[in-house]
Design goal:
alpha/beta, Dna Topoisomerase Vi A Subunit, Chain: A, domain 2, DNAb Helicase, Chain A, 3 domains, five-stranded mixed β-sheet, two-stranded antiparallel ribbon, 7 strands
Length: about 375
């Protein structure tokens, strides 16, 4: 068993008589640590770099058989499930991984764990459809290298593999089955990056036979439960108006159908915080929550933190009162806009001694509207 540079660090053997243990390795030492090594890495790297890919198999014999058959970018995880150290080793050298673990229950479990680790390292992962009960060694011995190359060409995306497992034994006519599959599907979405969620969520909703909004709502609820007790990024709340902006966009994220009401009160012009305006602008353009999250993640920095904060916050009112609450928020923000304009006109009046008739009429109308109490003037709400 060699390291990346071809230096021998340990030895491994496999039972030929199906005796236990099936694999026997050198003892763990400072030099040799099985969880940090991949069998065949020194042989595979020159070819892996050419294809920017590695094939991940379970055992020594799988790797050896593939190498003998001319498929020379395979490595073995030493007969164990993939470890984080091994995933880091792979990520240092390639961007793509094909998992070809044994087609049995243990192999499937190892594949699921391996997918989670590899995806968390930013790798693109696909899974080979090995015939049931076979491993790569058996397959190549029986069908040859061309057939194995065909498996590589037709490898499934990791999310299709996971969805197939999630939907195993699914009964569309059973509400209990639908509920359980939705729960498992949302748990899977929780493991993914924002970008991958955007790709997988429509597939999950289509196979489940429900609208994307149902899955989005379940995911949003799960995200919030998962963050309980965790410090969320906070926006600097300068005053009541800042909080009103935050709450208004939070309502819009959860109830985008209320955007017409926002437009009636002045639309985007009610918002002064640039990061929040960025979110509102996209809601008005019809972006889904997950498209907003994707773009914010790409922008990074404060925009990403702002969107994460807003999306993970709980609504500060009961669901049946959302419409009224949103209207009060809009009145609060409109009051600020009106007060800003009044201050601007008063400054002009002070500076010039008078106002043109059109501006003076505007000034009087704004004062009347403000004093009638149609808006709150201090950023505080009466509820």
């Amino acid at each position: 068993i060699c390291d990346e540079r071809g230096r021998v660090l340990g030895f491994g053997g496999r039972s030929l008589q199906n005796e236990e243990p099936k694999y026997l390795n050198s003892p763990e030492t400072i030099v040799f640590s099985k969880k940090r090594m991949l069998f065949g890495i020194d042989k595979a790297l020159p070819f892996a770099k050419e294809f920017d890919s590695l094939i991940l198999v379970e055992g020594y014999m799988d790797m050896i058989r593939l190498y003998q058959a001319g498929i020379r970018f395979a490595v073995a995880s030493l007969g164990t499930s993939l470890t984080e150290a091994q995933a880091n080793l792979i990520a240092r050298h390639v961007s793509n991984v094909f998992i070809a673990y044994d087609a049995d229950a243990a192999g499937e479990s190892a594949t699921v764990r391996g997918i989670s680790l590899l995806v968390s390292k930013g790798l693109k992962v696909k899974v080979l459809d090995m015939p049931k009960g076979m491993d790569p060694d058996d397959f190549v011995a029986k069908y040859g290298s061309e057939a194995f190359n065909s498996l590589i060409e037709n490898a499934r995306s990791f999310w299709d593999f996971r969805l197939d497992i999630i939907f195993r034994d699914y009964e569309p006519s059973s509400m209990d089955s639908k509920r359980e599959v939705l729960k498992r599907g949302v748990d899977f979405l929780m493991e993914l990056s924002e970008v991958d969620r955007l790709l997988v969520l429509p597939k999950l909703s289509e196979r489940l036979g429900v609208s994307e909004s149902v899955v989005e709502k379940a995911l949003r609820s799960r995200l919030r439960r998962g963050r309980k007790g965790v410090s969320l990024p906070r926006l600097p709340s300068k005053d009541g108006f800042q909080r009103a902006e935050e709450d208004a966009v939070l309502v819009l994220i959860n109830y985008p159908e209320l955007k017409d009401k926002l437009i009636g009160y002045g639309g985007l012009e009610l918002f002064e915080d640039e990061k929040i305006r960025w979110v509102v602008e996209r809601i008005l353009e019809g972006y889904s929550e997950y498209r907003i999250m994707e773009e914010a993640e790409e922008r990074g920095g404060e925009q990403s933190s702002t969107v994460s904060y807003l999306i993970l916050r709980e609504l500060p009112c009961e669901e049946e009162k959302v419409g009224l609450y949103f209207e009060e928020l809009l009145k609060t923000l409109l009051s600020r806009k009106i007060k800003r304009r009044i201050d601007e006109l008063e400054e002009m009046l002070k500076r010039n001694g008078s106002l043109p008739p059109s501006l003076y009429n505007e000034y009087l109308n704004l004062l009347k509207e403000f004093r009638r109490g149609r808006c709150f003037g201090n950023g505080k709400r009466s509820f």
